[in-house]
Amino acid sequence: MAPLDLEGGTLGQKHAHYNKLLKEAISSGQHVSAFTLGDNDIENLLKIDQACHVRDVDFIVSVFKCGDILCVSRALARSRWLITDPQYANIINADYVHTQLFPYMSTKAFIKLIKQIRLNILDEERAEQFYLHEKKDTDALKWLPKCSANFIEANIEKHFNNLKMRTFKRLCEKTNKIFEIFMEKTCYYDRARYAQVAMFLLKADVDKFLDVIEKDRSNYLPKFNDKATALIMKKSPKRVIDKFDRFATSIHIPTFSRFLKTDEIKPFLYAQAKKENDNNFEYYNLRNFFRYDTLKYFIKKLPKNEQFEFVKKIFIDKEIADADEEKLVAGTEQYNMRKLYVVVRTPSYVWYRFADFERAFQDITEIISKDLDNNDKISMLAVLMACADNNLEHIQKLIQYYLDKHRTADNHNTWKFTTDLLNNTNIHQYDEKTWSLINELFKILKIFDESDSSSVQNIGVIIESIIVYNLIHDQNVSANVQQKFSFKTLKQYGKKLNEEQKEKVFRYLYNFLINKLKPIIKEDDFSDTISTLSQILELLRDWKKQLADYTLVTDKIKECVEIRRKNSWKGSLLHIYKFNKSWQRLMFEESVAMNPGEEVCLNALKHDPLLLERQSNDVQSLRCNDAVTLRRLLAKLRTYWPQSLSTQWVEAYMENLNKTDGHKATIRGLCASLSQKPLLELIEKYKPTQAKIDWSAIDDRILSIQRFIAKNMHIARPQPSPENILFFARGDYLQYALPSLLAIFYNLSIMESKKYILKLLDAPVSVQKHGIRLVYKKLDHETIKKIFFDCWKASKNVSIRAIIFKFTFELLCNEKDSANAVSLWELIELFIDNLTFEEDKKIYELMSNIEKIPLNVRAKYLVKAYNFMKNLTQKVKEEDRENYKRITAQLAEHSRQVIEDMPSEFITDIIQEFIDKEFFGFEDNFGSVYSSGGIISVISAYLLSAKSENEQAEKYEKVFVPIMRRAFEKWSEKKDGSFIIRSNFQCLLTHLSNDLKDYVVEKNLLLPHKMFLNIKEELEKSISKSENYMMLTKWKLTVALCKLAEIPYSEGDNWVGITSEIATDFGQIALDYLKEDVKIHFPCIYKLYSKALNSQLHLISQERIKITIYRCFLADENFIEGYLTAIETSKESYSYDKDMYSDLWDQISEHPSVEIKMHYYYNTNTNNDYC
Q1: CA 981/CA 922 separation, integer angstroms
Q2: Which of 3, 116, 910, 983 is most buried as measured by Cβ atoms within 10 A of its Cβ?
Q3: 503 CB contacts (<8 Å, ≥6 apart)?
């Protein structure tokens, strides 16, 4: 039986015939037999479409498992019901898809299936199953938008680091709670981007959206466009007006100003000026508000007759400028005007834009007359142009003034004045008198001189204006002007002209370009013609003309195509062809020559496939062009023209094989065009007989064909079996076969992979690597472990061992099941035990990535990896030693994260080594250690991670006491004039103090009050207070904080709750300590005490809690040092948030003490740093 071939000439006609055949098959009720993949695509597709129509699930599933991606794609596209209809949930669920379909589907087919399910699934519960089944967070994230709102909210924080904005928007569409979570949990500088994407939520609830973004105290707010600003001003105008300083740079100012009433304008501007005068960082957004370009929108809201008077009083008259601000009464009109004057830095003459022309002309010309060299002269004249507002009398008066007073001015100024005038007025409305005056300006600039003696360079605007004016007034354009004209389409003038005037200008420009077209004699003429044709097309487009009406142009294009083809010139016509898509139909016959590529060939299939035969020479060039891909075209030919065009193309490709070049395009074409059987015959014909190439005897043509078959056979549909590529994947041919080898084995189903893995693992090293990669990607963990272990034992090759270690490590890092993690760790442990000191460096680098190891095996891994790296460091070359020391140190430092699981002996050993070599052995180091991390943090974690007081006491005696006693013995030792031991010991104390919040409470550990108290007693007993006041005081405050925290901590409070509850008691104790120190020592001790207290208050993140503590220092009005301490400790926070601290500082300001008032005013004066 002859294979089915569709009727019709064009692609559309063949589609129509196909639809007719499908309709007949469906209406006949013909049963669809079990699916078998045939060579005829149309027959395969008909069966699939028929099965999809009757919902034959078994048939569809069998198509999914076939190797032809065309059939799989068609089945997926036509069986959306399989995903959306709940009755098929037994098939489209995570378990069935991954256990019953995935092992039998090619990789590409399965990826398509998963994507189709993800796009169309409606059942949130099933989507959640797919999410939970994914091992990688990035893959799981793709399912999240299809899950329920509660599920999304519970899992979103896992994906903060790799969430794309597009996905974020989809999640916000599902639940607006996501927006709130992101605005609360992400970095402040990212929040504006997220808020911008979530702007659509504004429509649902304006106040809620603003509530969320206003919680962020930073200045990073999203940009509200005109529509968003209008919506806010309709729903909640007051909150934006009251907090305008926060929204000033975010909202659309012109829209915002429209919603203010006329009587609100002045009070609003005064209020913002008062904020700007305050110099508070919160009002930083107002820095660009007080400019003409912004304020004009508000001033124009005032009545027309009040606008100029308002700006005149403030910015032009001297009364406000010269006023003594201290003598003005707050709240009066003059006081407010003065405040506004101070913050606006726009030159006074700019405000004349609100005046009528006569007034502006009189005042500005008077200003200019007093200083003819004024650098702002041209800017002032530009203001007068704006005031003239296209009134010809005013324009004439302005030009005449310039001619009378500034004729001898610098030519650049004259050019600037002239071009500004032409750009900002309507020259088509000029009368003869106006044009005569402006001609005088042209003469000054020597525009009409025949020689190119113009004193300015850029005269384009002037020449264009002359041409347009002359044309619309039926005057000739002089040859001199035309010569200076650099072609532009002048479309900006067309918007202002009537139809008759437009046609005059267009016709001139068209003829100007047509006259530039010359006979094409040489290749330079061809290039010039193409350039001119591009300008003509640009002209036609900008003046809304149709190319079909200008046959002279289309004929010239066709002439260029023919000349280029005849002379084999290289000049491209692509720009001409692609200039306007709707004009391409006029160049259909020449399209292949003008745009040689797949796109025009596909277009030919839609409209007239015979074009490919008529333009056979150009098509043949395409077929031989290695740089052009024709896969989509060849796929269409193979499916819809299997007996005609496709056969012709295959024959042409076969003929090309006999040539010595163009084999890449030829082989790629054959792989895409041939069905399975003839392709396998081609591969069989050219497969190499020997693995090694005999370069002296090989036929270069045959070798070229073999190379490109090896490289490109994977693009065939369906792909050849692995046996075919394995013929090439050996010896000298392996380098050519790698692309196909990787692609074919990557695409194999799991069941198919199992048949070929052993062949790859038994191959040379270069192929064996890819076999290991295939094992990793395709097989289950137990099988992978067995194969990897066998390969590891059998191979001494460092590359093979490195890739095995890498993939096993990745498996362990990605494992979520604790039992599987233990099993994989045991394999990794065997590998580490078997490692030498001469492995691939990638293994050693990989071992430092401990953060990714599952927690239940991380401690064991850390000990094993640390011990190996420590031994390695002693054996490697000098140039590698520092890097491996760094990795070893990272491993040791990470033990803090899993300190509860770490062997005690291991921790004490690394602590002791650190103490000996760095803490006390600083002679070989740069100086002190740092409290932010390193082994100092491990010491702190080890001491604090006790389960009982007895255990903590034991750790204290074993670890801390020896450090402390040894430190006291060396307390007076210096290096470069610094007490390094004291500094190191302070770092340790600081870390212990900080870890109250960051470690003890966070991990719900035992509060170390007794240990801290013991440390305090030892410090006070062993070091002098005069030399170590700061250390002693800070630690005394830490002990007090720890003691007070015991009761709320035992009740399960978090750190914020604990510090909130104990704030008053802690503040009282801190005050008592200060009183005691002042009494014992001297009043100025409050300065040092304040620094110590501030250091400990860093443990408290909530400002309101700090304020509660600061208030305790104000409890005793007779204790001056208490007030001064409150000022010292809170002044920095007050400068950043005056609103929150206003009550506290108001109370301070009311104290009658002169000393307190001096400190108060000094710290509230924002300019004191410049005095």
Answers
A1: 9
A2: 910
A3: none
